[in-house]
Amino acid sequence: MEMEHFKTRHIGIRPEDLDVMLQTLGVSSVDELIDQTIPADIRLKKPLSLPKAQSEMEYAEEIGRIASTNKIFTSYIGMGWYDTVTPAVIYRNVFENPVWYTSYTPYQAEISQGRLEALLNFQTVVSELTGLPLANCSLLDEATAAAEAASMMYGLRSRDQVKNNISTLFVDQHIFPQTLAVLRTRMGMAGIEIEVGDYNSFDADKAYFGAIVQYPNSNGNVEDYRNFVEKAHASGCKVAVAADLMSLVLLVPPGEWGADIAFGSSQRFGIPMFYGGPSAAFFATRDEYKRSMPGRIIGISKDAYGKDALRMALQTREQHIKREKATSNICTAQALLATMASFYAVYHGPEGLKKIARRIHSVASLVADELKELGFRQLNSSFFDTLKLQLPENITQSSVKDLAEMRNINLRYFETGEIGISIDETTDPYRVHELLAVFAMAAGSSKVFMIDELPEKVTLKGEQLRSSGFLTHPTFNSYHSETEMMRYIKRLERKDISLAHSMISLGSCTMKLNAASELLPLGHPGFQKIHPFAPEDQVAGYQEMIHELESMLAEITGFAATSLQPNSGAAGEFTGLLVIASYLKSIGQGDRKTVLIPASAHGTNPASAVQAGFNPVTVATDIKGNVDMDDFRKKVETYRDDLAAFMITYPSTHGIFEVNIREMCDMIHEAGGQVYMDGANMNAQVGVTNPGTIGADVCHLNLHKTFAIPHGGGGPGVGPICVAEHLVPFLPGHPVVFESETNTVSAAPYGSAGVLAITYGYIRMMGAEGLTEATKMAILNANYLAERLNDSYGIVYRGVNGRVGHELILECRGLKSVSGITETDIAKRLMDYGFHAPTLSFPVHGTLMIEPTESESLAELDRFVDAMQQIHNEIIEVSRGEYSAEDNVLINAPHPEYEAVADEWKHAYPRSKAVYPLPYVAENKFWVNVARVDNAFGDRNLVACLCQM
Fold this sequence. Notes:
Mean pLDDT: 95
Radius of gyration: 28 Å
Keywords: Oxidoreductase, Pyridoxal phosphate
Subunit structure: The glycine cleavage system is composed of four proteins: P, T, L and H.
Largest sheet: 7 strands, mixed
Family: Belongs to the GcvP family.
Cofactor: pyridoxal 5'-phosphate
Number of strands: 25
CATH topology of the domain at 522-766: Aspartate Aminotransferase, domain 2
CATH class of the domain at 522-766: Alpha Beta
CATH superfamily of the domain at 522-766: Type I PLP-dependent aspartate aminotransferase-like (Major domain)
Strand content: 5-15%
CATH architecture of the domain at 522-766: 3-Layer(aba) Sandwich
Distance between the termini: 64 Å
Number of helices: 32
Helix content: 25-40%
Oligomer: single chain
Strand order of the largest sheet: 2-8-7-6-5-3-4
Catalytic activity: N(6)-[(R)-lipoyl]-L-lysyl-[glycine-cleavage complex H protein] + glycine + H(+) = N(6)-[(R)-S(8)-aminomethyldihydrolipoyl]-L-lysyl-[glycine-cleavage complex H protein] + CO2
């Protein structure tokens, strides 16, 4: 007998449920349903060629072996990544807690108050440490945040600068090389010239729209940028600063010496290095630039009864709403990691952070003094944590490297011969002893370093040291024991709905099971404690997993190769278009700039096209939700000579497998363009069809959707791209790890490598058969819901045979016309039933888009149906006048706990109808703690930091 298959745990539908579901749909088998749903001409002819499925026990043993082959060295490489200590109370109660890692982006504020508070804390930390009044709740990584800063400064040009076409960005030469590489990629696509130079030689007479400097710089030196900033501002040039967040605990913050933007990584606030990611980037700016800042902002508003409530503010800036007019294509943030970083700051508080930062600096100062006595010249005139050493003439870099590796130590080796040492939070007396012993042996010294304690030693100049206070709010001064911290985390946890509570039926978001067996290996030190620039012979396990994962994803998509570097779905879109642009340029067709995008495509597509330097042109959809073939043919012909690409989401965001997809791909190719397939809906393709078979040239994959990486409340996300053979030469490079920096799109060579083990585990345990079955069950579940809800609501779009794909759009506009109840009211009322709302008014205004995924059971699907049908009954009650339009359970939803238990009840309907609308709700009630949030108030009165309260 075989061991139990993992697929039986991942897929929610039991064999005994199938008869009921198939009978409801009027088909005899799941395969008959698939035949009615997916066009025959794009179906795969043979099963996927993947390794045999492993049991959970077999996978645990295999991934443990892989992790153990990575060599854990003490890393002093720095360059944006540092070893750190994740407090156990945070690791156990947040990182390993499904309530935190399976929640969705907090668009529905009333059931997201816990995450929103944690992210507001993150914004407060960033704002106060950078000295700038407004921060967002995270970006992807430091390098992409630099590109966002450059794009923002470009967008803020004065009228005269726009008139005179000022399009040059100044970048100081001592910026991290990976940041410069990403800047070159992103600015090159936007037509922005980069001039790299010494900030000390900055020529104010030259026309720059913006400048970027590093603080401390790539060498570790703490520069005084005050005069530079004054000169830049006098010439109309804005200044962005890449800052080390931990260093700002000690150093004068950029906002106090005139910076317009500060950005960087919060990785060293308790987030493991994870071979490069994920970790949350931070971004702060002046208040007057709030409508130009990329990413998301958490703001404080009021609920319907005047109680303070948190929400995502200024949401109209989101790229899927503004499309080609968006300021950025940012979609996924790094919310889970930002949450962890914020709890790190809460747990340590301002005094704890000062102790950590002082200790790091003191150790660096001690090491500098000891190395000076050994004959090594320290080149940084002032530093926070990083030394740059010039070696004596009789000592070679290679000899030091050999001695260091004998002691399992990694140093930074400059091409010009110097050695870099970056001290971090984990550097204890023993590690200092081992580090100094390396250099003593290299120098031929017999000195023995007896270090029992590390004395405090400050070598920074007085004018470089911070004098302003930070984190004075009680939140950062109340939870320093583990007991209090645990209770604070749990208090926030109870305010959020996640997959730990109920189905999250968001269309286009694929909120499936994130299995514990997939996530447990992330705790292995062999995955956590690896620097992304560690030598190749130390990362055999990561390389084995990465190469196999790349191969498996290529097989699944029908393509030749994969790049795992893009660290979000939107970043994957940009990268795919970048690869197309590079290919077209290589064949002398680089002037092609038009990208055709159906109205039914994923919302980020137009913004990504603009970011990649293309001109998006919308193709209409017909009354049935398909691409309007007449309009498509017309636009292909109109733009034939300029056509670069066609971006299509398949199945479409309307939930349809369009039968003309191959014809469309053929027409684009015949006109000289490339086909980009958005992989947001890949959960309806895996094992049954794929982009390569359909006719695409490149696709991105949302590993945080189809391939089981958790959403984490808005990130981490991973958006690798898979490409056909002719596009392989143009996949992203990296300036430090790969031989080329061409098309670098992320700070780390493999993006958020730390979470790749989740997708690797999902594929290895599901196998080809399990993945294919998951796709079929996702389609079955969607069609079951469509059939059950059709009579009450109606389905907006269906395929040619009357079937939906893996998601469906529920019609709500007719109900509004007879009752005044909107789709928003339905979404809020679902919270009273313990459910997260489906996708609201996207892609069709006035509707709800539902995607049940394959992980949900028939019992949960039926509970959701019962809730939706009961809500329909409640709407009919309003339409009949049984309850007024001004006072009914829908318009007043959700009903917070404080209202339900109040002595006074002001509504015409009873409390029981409000809070226990169905029997199952009473058995497992999720209590919201705020009433409906006033979005408009929050935007008019933006408060995005605890320090502003």
